[in-house]
UniProtKB/TrEMBL annotation, chain A:
InterPro entries: AhpD-like (IPR029032), AhpD_core (IPR004675), CMD-like (IPR003779). Transmembrane segments: none annotated. This is Alkylhydroperoxidase. Pfam families: CMD (PF02627). It comes from the Bacteria. Coiled coil: none annotated. The lineage of its organism: Bacteria, Bacillati, Actinomycetota, Actinomycetes, Kitasatosporales. Residues 32-113 form the Carboxymuconolactone decarboxylase-like domain. It comes from Streptomyces alfalfae.
Length: 173, 156
């Protein structure tokens, strides 16, 4: 039987899981000024954004970029903030599960996908226009900034192969 | 026949929170300072901007590369660096390969061979700042392309 501890990590004693990998590089230790600048940028980009949409955006970008540490962090933060398991589980299949989300959330998710996979259409007019229907100009550019920032965290996380599973909600709040 | 250049349709928006713009600039400066190689920094920023088709960023970083002593020929061949023989050093080639892998992240999540090649030429601190620089220009590319900022700006 598999049980989960408070961090969500499996603590089963009969199932043999694969070994946890070690990161390629402790980038924040080797570039502390960069890390501090990223924290400031993150704080600047979330200002004025709906926190529920903000976490959905962070999870969706991290799914696309396959950043395990970022998924660990933002899924746990979203759950701790009251997001439903269902909306998190369904997020990567939102096209088939639209009724779990508002029109504004879907517009934000579509923009997230376009800005994240930038080379696939370079943010098409219709995606931008749909987002602009739901967000005023200032809020829309904050949304673009937030998508940009999670893409940055994803790049650090994936490139240096950071390890998921140890995050506790609120650690980086 | 006279072919006129189509005018830029204009930016979608030049709105950008000054706090975000300032934090991005500080992040760029920290990455560049840590890398400590201004010419390589510009090559990396031009290459990522080519992939992401960021006209504003290409305009800016080609100018900066030239200012820092880069040659027009190397900039012109940057897109084909892998086939450009000894026009680029092994260190530059390792950095450019890493730039491409981190930029098109969804293609292959930065393969071991690409990472190891870069790690051979850069120490831990150098590599951390190189990754930071690639990440930062990918950030600028997203902020400029999403808002359709024209070469030369204004960008905010």
């Amino acid at each position: 039987m598999t049980t989960m501890d408070e961090t969500g990590a499996g603590t089963d004693t009969t199932t043999e899981y694969l070994h946890e990998h070690t990161p390629r590089l402790a980038w924040a230790t080797h570039a502390p000024e960069v890390f501090k600048a990223m924290i400031k940028l993150d704080a600047a980009a979330r200002k004025g954004l709906d926190p529920v949409i903000y976490e959905l955006v962070k999870i969706r970008a991290s799914q696309i970029n396959r950043c395990a540490l970022c998924l660990d962090m933002h899924a746990k933060d979203a759950l701790a903030a009251g997001e439903s398991v269902e909306r998190i589980v369904q997020l990567s299949a939102w096209e088939e599960s639209r009724h779990f989300y508002t029109a504004k959330e879907i517009a934000a998710i579509e923009l997230t996908e376009a800005v994240t996979v930038l080379t696939d259409g370079f943010v098409p007019d219709e995606v931008y226009a749909k987002a602009a229907e739901h967000f005023d100009e200032a809020e829309l550019t904050q949304l673009i900034a937030a998508i940009t920032v999670i893409n940055a965290w994803n790049r650090f996380g994936v490139t240096t192969r950071q390890v998921p599973g140890h995050y506790k909600p609120g650690d980086h709040k | 026949m006279t072919v006129g250049a189509a005018p830029h349709p204009g930016p979608r928006t030049t709105c950008l929170d000054p706090g975000v713009a300032g934090a991005m600039s500080a992040l760029s400066a920290a990455a560049k300072r840590g890398l400590g190689d201004p010419v390589l920094a510009e090559l990396v920023m031009v290459r990522a901007s080519q992939i992401n088709a960021c006209a504003f960023c290409l305009d800016m970083h080609v100018d900066l590369a030239l200012e820092r002593g880069e040659t027009p020929k190397r900039i012109a061949l940057l897109d084909a660096w892998a086939e450009a023989g000894d026009l680029f050093t092994e260190r530059e080639r390792a950095a450019l390969a890493l730039t491409e892998a981190v930029t098109v992240l969804t293609a292959d999540a930065v393969p071991d061979a690409t990472y190891a090649r870069a790690a051979e030429h850069f120490g831990d601190a150098g590599l951390a700042h190189l990754i930071a620089l690639i990440t930062v220009i990918n950030g600028w590319n997203r902020l400029m392309v999403s808002r359709r900022i024209a070469p030369g700006g204004p960008a905010w």
